[in-house]
Amino acid sequence: MKLLSVNVGRPRAVPYTDQPQGLTGIDKQPADGPVQVTAPGPKGIGASGLAGDAVCDTRHHGGDDQAVYAVAREDLDEWERELGRPLASGAFGENLTTQGLDVSGARIGERWRIGSEVVLEVTCGRIPCLTFQGHLGERRWVKRFTERGAPGAYLRVIRPGEIRTGDPVEIVHRPDHEVTVALQFRAVTTERELLPRLLPAGEALHPESLAQARKWVAGHEG
Question: Which of 11, 16, 33, 88 is the most exposed place for a label (fewest CB within 10 A)?
């Protein structure tokens, strides 16, 4: 298991974003050399966990619980075959393109050590937006991506440090529950009746998902 690519994006003006300033950092490109990874701060204030990486919509993206976004190269390869076009590493706006790692099958709270320093913790899946659809230029992309149910994973920074392309990835902690990124994604998008099944992940869940699950349970008790 390793990093095939570490990707960062600069702010860019595009016609397809719904942000008032018309800017997005979704166009990620491979970084040359090491990249510093740190916890960016609370959502709404903090942006990306990677130095030099832009997050223009801090209301929906970035912050401590969505500091880093990872996508498996294997998932990009599947989409390449379906779409009939090449998808470079970083094409989904991911910071980390991995090899040999089941990203969407990772458990919430699972911890990865990357290189010799950085430790990240899985929090939730990525919810697709219209900016993502515009960036890919594919019709009905939000619906198709959601139906596939392999959203990649957001991670929080447990131990900061430097990472670079080629670094090994090691799973150093795997919780004993069965709450995967894929399950969390289905529960908050298309199958809300699954929300109670998220609760065993506890505080490792993204706070918004945990609140949704608790609200569902409270509303259906009795």
Answer: 33
Tell me the backbone φ, ψ of residue 119, rounded to 5 degrees.
Answer: -125, 125
Residue 50 and residue 6 in contact, taking contact as beta carbons nearer than 8 Å: yes
Q: pLDDT tens, position by position, for the chain (222 residues)?
A: 999 999 999 988 877 766 667 888 899 999 999 999 999 999 988 899 999 999 988 888 899 999 999 999 999 999 999 999 999 999 999 999 999 999 999 999 999 999 999 999 999 999 999 899 999 999 999 999 999 999 999 999 999 999 999 999 999 999 999 999 999 999 999 999 999 999 999 999 999 999 999 999 998 875
Its pTM stands at 0.95
Per-residue tokens: 72: 């498996």
Distance CA 82, CA 61 (A): 27
3-class state of residue 78 by DSSP: helix
